[in-house]
């Protein structure tokens, strides 16, 4: 009877260890995947987590407020993705205004696309519209100031 209990205990412990290792691997992959890409934010909780992460790291956060039906948003999205690949020291977030109305209302978004530039939780700049050159210059300006 003792051997059976011990065997069940050992098997349970092995499963727990495997599960913990799997979670650690997923967290590492998620962190690596987030650098150099635009992160879509789908909940208020995720929004708050990304803001907090940006505040702690003191990184520049570029937020693309977009909508699935917005033509200029679809035009600028691949450009922003290319910029994100070149600038892993900047956090790039994408928020769908229809999906996260409370967040877009909180930040006073009235047109799409609108790009907000945040440092330590404070708005430092804003670009309204799919203006490639202005977007690139504004990101460069604040990314170098952050470094």
From TrEMBL:
<protein>
    <recommendedName>
        <fullName>Thioredoxin domain-containing protein</fullName>
    </recommendedName>
</protein>
<dbReference type="GO" id="GO:0005737">
    <property type="term" value="C:cytoplasm"/>
</dbReference>
<feature type="domain" description="Thioredoxin">
    <location>
        <begin position="30"/>
        <end position="145"/>
    </location>
</feature>
<keyword id="KW-1015">Disulfide bond</keyword>
<comment type="similarity">
    <text>Belongs to the thioredoxin family. Plant H-type subfamily.</text>
</comment>
<dbReference type="InterPro" id="IPR050620">
    <property type="entry name" value="Thioredoxin_H-type-like"/>
</dbReference>
<dbReference type="InterPro" id="IPR017937">
    <property type="entry name" value="Thioredoxin_CS"/>
</dbReference>
<keyword id="KW-0249">Electron transport</keyword>
<keyword id="KW-0963">Cytoplasm</keyword>
<dbReference type="GO" id="GO:0016671">
    <property type="term" value="F:oxidoreductase activity, acting on a sulfur group of donors, disulfide as acceptor"/>
</dbReference>
<dbReference type="InterPro" id="IPR013766">
    <property type="entry name" value="Thioredoxin_domain"/>
</dbReference>
<dbReference type="Pfam" id="PF00085">
    <property type="entry name" value="Thioredoxin"/>
</dbReference>
<keyword id="KW-0813">Transport</keyword>
<keyword id="KW-0676">Redox-active center</keyword>
<dbReference type="InterPro" id="IPR036249">
    <property type="entry name" value="Thioredoxin-like_sf"/>
</dbReference>
